[in-house]
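Here is one chain, start to finish.
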Amino acid sequence: MEEHIDENVSKNFIEEAIEKDLADGVYTHVQTRFPPEPNGYLHIGHAKAICIDFGNAQKYHGTCNLRLDDTNPSKEDVEYVDAIKEDISWLGFKWDKVLYASDYFDVIYESAVKLIKKGKAYVDDLSADEIREYRGTLKEPGKESPYRNRSIEENFELFQEMTDGMYQNGEKVLRAKIDMSSPNLNMRDPIIYRIMHQTHHRTGDKWCVYPMYDFAHPISDTVEGVTHSLCSLEFEDHRPLYDWVLRELEFEHPSRQIEFARMNLNYTLTSKRKCLKLVNDGIVSGWDDPRMGTLCGMRRRGYTPEAIRDFCDRIGVAKANSVIDFSLLEFCVREDLNKIAPRAMAVLRPIKLVIDNYPEDLTEELDVEINPQNPETGTRKVKFSKNLWIEADDFMEEAPKKYFRLSIGREVRLKSAYYVTATSCEKDENGNVTVVHCTYDPETRRGQSADGRKVKGTIHWVSANHSIDATVRLYERLFNVENPSDESKVGTFIENLNPHSIETLTGCKLESSLADAKPGDTFQFLRLGYFCVDKDSAADNLIINRTVALKDSWAKVNK
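Its structure:
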């Protein structure tokens, strides 16, 4: 059944361009591609590109390919290819085909030869530094290489020798012959092929010359049948070169490049080089460390694909770059988990609560909702007994007026259970409270009093005789500054690390219903936030990651 596109819904500029091209008959269908380089793990910024590339293909009943840009074998690895596939699938998208830029190496090479034979490309002997010097500046035109006017025959022969491995890396390059005085620096005879004696993860040692991205990209798009090549905004200045390549190669149905603003998320690092340093230096546990801005890190932390897609949708598609507040992403995560996460009780910093007048040998099973937002999930059994665990900060021996939790002589509600009143406490040699004694009112089962009296405080608890031990990791943002990459103002990104980005708590107590929790399972721990079972967890060593707190406390602390 064909999806109806509501004409009254406002469209972004990409959708307007696609619909105009379809209406004008420029293209009869829509085909897009997502073209990451397999030299690192995908991050939250890639999620926006994935949603745009795959989302537009879905909307217009077209196709979207995953095309790995493997034109630089010195930095690429099969590990990254597999990770990219996993992340896209996790986000909920399906590609039509998995392709590689290397699939087109033959046709790209033939295209370079065609430009040489047209007098539109030449072999240059200048060094990389000399090419930069000759290039000029934004205010001054470049100057032509002394090798620019070699004959077509000489260029063809030299390029063949480059291909045959007769020269070392950097000794020669192939450049497009365009305009050294162009106001667009990308059009000043850009390099389109370079020598690289490097084994490729797919083609082995077949090639020792490899195309530059700006040359391979338009050719791969068009040969593949891509109609709309959707790129981030930094490629806007490269579009004239994209169009020049396709025009000079005389493709009958050239692809169209359209640029959109990339996602810049504050307090987040997305530079692959810098992220790799964090990993290699052991500052984080790996690419999937829950503090990282990678999709695998966010998945491990407990973020849901639905929340990330919602986040990308809320941001929208713009033509100008902007910085998005991390709090919006956390809001989307909370909103999604609130709907789907089962509730549970956990005590992270436990002290004992003993109900002195509760029967010693009695254990009750209370029926508690699994998720109040979704009544269809039903109820779970929670055990209640004489000895409980409560949070250390839920008790104060002498409390101020606005403290509504447990204190001597004060009555509070135990969530879904009874009213209790603290009577005394025990302390260790350092003066820390270890045990609180209280009495309960048996007429207040399920947290309601027969006489209608009200209490202002409700605290959670876990039955001490039925609790499960766990290690809980509390995560905060990895950096203390909004733009950790801006080293001109705030020092190196290493100096901007948040020393409190992780706190590991051992001896935490969880309710018994979590006994069968598996890695990846998410929960809302009442009053504490949303949590996810870590991949390193085992039946005898439960490890829990905090996904996000119930409320945004970061903004308050870091005003």
